[in-house]
Structure formats: structure tokens, C-alpha cells
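I have been asked to look over a protein record a colleague put together. This is what I was given:
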Amino acid sequence: MGGLSAVSYFLITTLFSLIIFVLWARIFIRYFSIGPFSSFSQSITQLTNPLVTPIQQYVLRGKGKKGPYDLACLLLLFCCELFRFFILSALFLVHGLPLFYLLLFALVKMMVEPCNILFFAIIIRVLISWVNPNWQHYFATVVFAITEPLLKRIRRTL
């Protein structure tokens, strides 16, 4: 891989990673019932509304607005993952990948990404507990809301 192709690969993966992280943040905000009036929730919602709202209105026809799951955002997330693998295979592989492999890679990536986010959230929570255990900031509240269900089960088991 040459220098220009390595840089383009890095830029493409970074751009898609940021988009996908913001979409996962929207899903986590809704699933963990993080306050809609905070600046973090409002900024994530404003960033993703132009993409999610048309899918919710025209594709899902208003379904999926209630409950803990944001179906329009999940559908958009799957399409972004699929498009990422399509772009990367078209640019960097000689023949590209078959559609089945693209679908499989996108599905697996959608299962792995929340685990990565949860892992880093736990690492951040550990660092917060070492530095200042009583830190009162909205970022700490979001991290605690995401990690507490898993850590509560681990504490109960131990």
C-alpha cells in the first residue's frame, strides 16, 4: 500500500468511524434514557436528525418512535457500515467483495462496535474513579449511565 492510498484509507475509516460513533451515541442516549435536555443529548440529536428523520418518516412510516430502540438510527447505522465496507473494497481491492461478504462484515461490525464503546466507557469510568471519585460532570453521568447496568450485574455475581 502506497503513501497516498494509506492516507486515503486512514481518512475514509476515520470519517466513517466518527459518523458511526455519533449514531451509536444517539442509540445509547435513547436506550439508557439519558436526559434529553442536556447539551450532549441535544447536540447529538441535532447532528443526526437530518439523516434519521427522513428514514423514520418515509421508510419506517413513523414506527419505532416509542420504546428503548431507535430503529431508524439502527437502519442508518447498518447502511453506513455497509457503505463503508463497499467504499473500502471498491477502492482498495482489485475485484471488490461480493454483496454477501459486505452484509456479513457490516453485521459483525454492528455487533463489535457497542462492545468497543462499552470497553472504553469502562476504562474512562475507572480513570474517573482514580482521579476524582465524586466528580460531578455531565460526561461522567453519561459514562455512569452506560456502564452501570453491566457493572451492577458483575457486582451481584461477585
Q: What stands out?
A: The chain has five helices and no strands. The helical segments are 3-31, 39-59, 71-92, 99-131, 138-157. The mean pLDDT is 88. Residues 15 and 71 are 23 Å apart (CA to CA).
